[in-house]
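re: ur question from earlier - yeah i can do the single chain one, its not a big deal. heres the input i used so u can compare w yours
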Amino acid sequence: MDSFSKGLPAFLLVFLVTVDTGIAGNFNQEFDVTWGGHRGKVFNGGELLSLSLDKTSGSGFQSKKEYLFGRIDMQLKLVAGDSAGTVTTYYLSSQGPNHDEIDFEFLGNVTGEPYIVHTNVYAQGKGNREQQFYLWFDPTKNFHTYSIQWNPYQIVFLVDNTPIRQFKNAESLGVSYPKNQPMRIYSSLWNADDWATRGGLVKTDWSKAPFTAYYRNFNVQTCSASCTSGFSNGAWQNQELDAYGRRRLRWVQKNFMIYNYCTDYKRFPQGFPPECRL
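and the output i got, formated as tokens:
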């Protein structure tokens, strides 16, 4: 034990042992391409992965490991050009009828129009908690980092380390929260032109196929034991966003949010879901 460790309380010593330091992952080692055959490819010794969609099939991959709480980072470069009708997903999910899920979905659009970032949270099989955003950059020109911070108190969605959405644990209000089921990381690229672009009005232009999205610099910080006590100063373990994070969240939600289920009066005429009060 070094001199630094000798001065720490016992619960922090346990925490230091059980926290993954978050070394960047290798796609060959950490993921399996699970469908789409040759449309899912790994390059550069496992440093780069691509998914493609053509008229026959899309493609997808999933992590070999399951995770219970942590921060998951992935850099994506989305389908360029006319991507209308396509959906690129990047999400965490457990299995079974009462599954938990934390979703990023990127809805393509015609050339020059912005992507829509669709987010959702499922707990015990219940979702319908959608928020949607435009981005403040073109996500097809360069790689950008999309992150999920998930701890027992909150889920935070981040883009290039800027929080765009915060979903707090509202169990005290009778709302289920994903905290008991380990989840795998999934991603897919598929055709959803029946609903994805302007409610299905704009169809996929198959003359532009194959459509391809790219992934790199997967990184995970997680716990191999309990994460409910002994948190250090790492951002994903903290119960609340700091002041800067709250300002950035307000900036995104003021300027780039285009749908929030918590303000959809037509959908909830009898009153908004309880978690909307937080």
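Confidence is low (pLDDT under 50) at residues 1-21, 228-233. not sure if urs matches, ping me
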